[in-house]
Amino acid sequence: DTLDALVATLLASEAASSEREETVTVLSTHVRDATAGLSSVPKPLKFLAPHYASLSDLFATTDGSDEGTKRLADLLSVLAMTREAGDVREALSFKLRGHPADIAVWGGEY
User: Fold this and answer.
1) CA atoms of 20 and 100, how far apart (whole Å)
2) Between 46 and 25, the higher pLDDT residue
3) Residues 39/80, Cβ–Cβ less than 8 Å
4) Is the pTM of this model over 0.85?
5) HEC string of the chain?
6) pLDDT band with cut points at 50, 70 and 90 for residue 107
7) Which residues contact 46 (CB under 8 A, 6 or more apart)?
8) What are the distances in angstroms from CA 74 to CA 1, 19, 48, 87, 110?
9) d(Cα 109, Cα 91) in Å, to the nearest integer?
10) Which of 28, 39, 43, 87 sits most deeply, having the most CB atoms within 10 A of its CB?
11) How far is residue 46's CA from residue 62's CA, in Å, rounded to a whole number?
12) For the residues 65-80, what does the mean pLDDT come to?
C-alpha cells in the first residue's frame, strides 16, 4: 500500500531531510484529498492513526526549523484532532509549530 511505504520512508533513520519533506508533503496531500468531502473518517486518517505515536516521536527528535518538520507538525495536528483520546491542546501545539497561518488548506472541519 502506498501509505505504508510513505510511513516507512518517513520513519527510516537514514532518510535525508529532503526525502522526509517530500514524503510528508505526499502524505499530507493524501489526507487533504480524502478529507475534502468529509462524511466519515477517511482511509488515510484511519491508516495513519496507529502511527501517531511514532510520527510524534520522530517530530520530537527534530529541531523544528526545516520545512519538512513544519509540514510534519501540520500533519500531526490534523491527526491529533482525530484521535479518540486526543487532547485538543496537542493539535494546537503541533499547529503552532507548523504553519499556523495555513489552516484553510485542511478544510472547514479543521
Assistant:
1) 20
2) 25
3) no
4) no
5) CHHHHHHHHHHCCCCCHHHHHHHHHHHHHHHHHHCCCCCCCCHHHHHHHHHHHHHHHHHHCCCCCCHHHHHHHHHHHHHHHHCCCCCHHHHHHHHHHCCCCCCHHHCCCC
6) low
7) none
8) 23, 17, 14, 15, 11
9) 13
10) 28
11) 25
12) 89
d(CA 65, CA 53): 21
Q: Which of 56, 58, 62, 50 is nearest to 76 (CA)?
A: 56
Cell of 74: 501540520
Q: What are phi and psi of 33, to 5 degrees?
A: -65, -40
CB 32 within 8 A of CB 79: no
Name the residue with higher pLDDT: 76 or 15. 76
All 3 cell numbers of residue 4?
A: 505504508
**Grid-cell match 495555513, residue found:** 102
